C-alpha cells in the first residue's frame, strides 16, 4: 500500500519515469550526493529484485560508449528491466551461499567490482530485535563478500574481547573480497546497535564511511544506508 505524503510522490514519480519501484530514488539520491558510480564502473547489485537499482546504476554509467557493467544477483529470477542496456545482466543465486571465487569470476576480467550495492532486507516480522538481527546478518554478508571475512574479523572493534582471533586458515583465495581497492560499498541496514557495529568494522577499512536516510524512505521504515568510500589496500602483516 502506498503511504501518504512524500512517499506517495515517489511512488507516482517511479511510475511516471518508468522505474520498476520507488526504491530507485534512494540510489539516485546516494549517487547525487556521493557519485559512487562513474563511467566505466563495474557495479554489483546484491539483492537486486525488482530491478530499480539496476536501472539507476545503468543510467549512472552514462552513455553506452562510456563502458562499465552492472551485475544483479538475487535468489529470485530477475529480468533486466526497462531503461537498462546490454551492460546490465542478472544472475539467480543465493547471496548467502555464493562462493566468492564464483562471484569474482562473474566480474569484468575476473578482477572484482568497483562498486558493490546491497539493498538486501529481511522479511520484516515486526519484532524489532529479530528484524535488526536479521538485517545485521545480511549486512555482514555484504561486507564479507566485499572485503573478505579475514578483514571484517581482524578489523573489528577491540572491545570485542570474546571474538575469535584471526586464523590463517581463513586467508584462502576464496575468502578475499570482490571489491577492488579504492572501491565503494553501500549497505542497507535497520537502525540498531548492531548497525553501528558494522560501521565500526568498516571505518578502518575505508577512507570514509557515513550514514544516509534517503528522502524516498517511508516514514515508518527504520532503513538506513551505510556508505563506505575508498577501500584501503590490505595491510600485509
From TrEMBL:
Keywords: Methyltransferase, rRNA processing, S-adenosyl-L-methionine, Transferase
Protein known as: rRNA methyltransferase 2, mitochondrial
Family membership: Belongs to the class I-like SAM-binding methyltransferase superfamily. RNA methyltransferase RlmE family.
Active-site residues (renumbered): 188
Ribosomal RNA methyltransferase FtsJ domain span: 19-230
Coiled-coil annotated residue ranges, if any: none
Domain of life assignment: Eukaryota
GO molecular function, one term: rRNA (uridine-2'-O-)-methyltransferase activity
